[in-house]
Design brief:
Blueprint lengths: L2 E2 L3 H17 L4 H6 L2 E2 L5 H12 L1 H96 L1 H24 L2 H8 L3 H19 L3 H22 L11 E4 L2 E4 L6 E4 L2 E4 L5 E3 L4 E8 L5 E8 L2 E11 L6 E2 L4 E5 L9 E8 L2 E3 L2 H4 L2
Parallel strand pairs: 1-2
Antiparallel strand pairs: 3-6, 4-5, 6-13, 7-12, 8-9, 8-11, 9-10, 10-12, 10-13, 13-14
Helix pairs in contact: 3-4, 7-8
Length: about 375
């Protein structure tokens, strides 16, 4: 059996009765040892009673008051936080409403502007259509007037056209037989002016003859002549080969600076610093590139049409034999290799195996 007691006094009474029963023989010791006294589960009243016993009544009441105050503070803080959050939400909502109104006003303004532009465009399109209708009417009236004039003067127009065609055919025959390239080269050698004259002639022919088969034939003929002149111009040695200070020794007879004897000078000595760029006087093919006796490092270029140019006393050569070069292309650097008294470029122009006066070609 089990006995339960609610407090110490009651527990003591139960224990006394239990052992009294053992003494009277009604309960064995073994059974008594199995009996234990257990308090009930902790209740609110017991908890309060325990606190009063531990801390005393005054302290217990103070703790209760403090706990009540703490709960009130927590409730108050929670209320304040909730109120603050509510105010923030109201401010945020107010700001969003203001932004929404601003966006709505801006959108309405843009829609109004777009409608205004559309209306102006439609009005402009309408005016343009009306103007186009007027112009089409004028064109039709002009066509009708031209047809009337042609019908009225048909005989006069026919005779006039025949006379003009005869004159144009005579002009076409003359131009077709003309060899502009030979005449330009033999007369003056002014190749650049000849090219410009051909372009002017082509423009005049198109204006006079219009777009016809004869016009195309004449233009093709002039283009062919122009191509020949351009090729000759590109291979004509008139490009100044180096930026020099002055000419120290001209083409022709002079006193040799080493021997003092009179000797023919076959080129032009242009004074320049060592390492100055040397350019090809015309387009052509390199046929010599290396050391050549008194010339030192030397380059010889064949330009066709019987022309060649030589560049001597170089410090460095940039091209090789067999290489194609263009007019104005850098081919070497100047120097004083070979038989030379100072840095310069010795430049020669050769036509059909004979040297010529370089200044006749590159004279400034």
């Amino acid at each position: 059996m089990r006995f339960y007691a609610s407090d110490k006094a009651e527990s003591k009474k139960v224990v006394d009765r239990l052992w009294l029963s053992v003494a009277e023989g009604r309960v064995s010791r073994r059974t008594a040892r199995k009996v234990y006294v257990r308090r009930k589960a902790v209740s609110a009243r017991r908890f309060r009673t325990g606190l009063k016993d531990v801390f005393g009544t005054a302290v217990f009441e103070s703790l209760g008051a403090a706990l009540a105050v703490g709960l009130c503070l927590v409730a108050a803080l929670g209320f304040c936080q909730m109120k603050r959050t509510n105010e923030e939400l109201m401010l945020s909502n107010k700001s969003l409403n203001g932004q929404n109104e601003s966006i709505q006003r801006s959108l309405n303004d843009k829609i109004s502007l777009l409608n205004s532009v559309i209306n102006k465009y439609e009005q402009l399109t309408k005016e343009q259509r009306e103007e186009l209708d007027v112009k089409e009417t004028e064109v039709e009236e002009s066509k009708a007037y031209i047809k009337e004039l042609i019908a009225k003067h048909e005989d006069d127009l026919t005779s006039l056209t025949e006379a003009e065609e005869a004159k144009l055919q005579e002009l076409i025959d003359t131009l077709s037989e003309l060899d502009l390239f030979d005449s330009v080269v033999s007369r003056s050698g002014n190749l650049y002016q000849a090219t410009r004259d051909i372009d002017a002639a082509k423009t005049a022919i198109i204006e006079v003859l219009g777009e016809t088969a004869q016009t195309s034939e004449l233009i093709d003929h002039l283009d062919s002549e122009k191509a020949d002149i351009k090729y000759y111009r590109d291979h004509y040695p008139d490009y100044y080969p180096v930026n020099g200070d002055h000419v120290s020794s001209s083409y022709g007879w002079r006193r040799d600076p080493f021997t003092g004897e009179s000797k023919f000078h076959s080129g032009l000595d242009i004074v320049c610093d060592t390492g100055s760029s040397v350019w090809a006087a015309a387009s052509g093919t390199v046929i010599e590139a290396g050391e050549k006796g008194s010339y030192g490092y030397c380059v010889l270029i064949d330009h066709g049409n019987g022309y060649m140019t030589r560049y001597a006393h170089l410090s460095k050569i940039l091209v090789k034999v067999g290489e194609e070069v263009q007019k104005g292309e850098k081919i070497a650097y100047s120097g004083m290799t070979g038989r030379a008294t100072g840095p310069h470029l010795h430049f020669e122009v050769i036509l059909n195996g004979e040297t010529k006066q370089p200044l006749d070609y590159i004279g400034r």
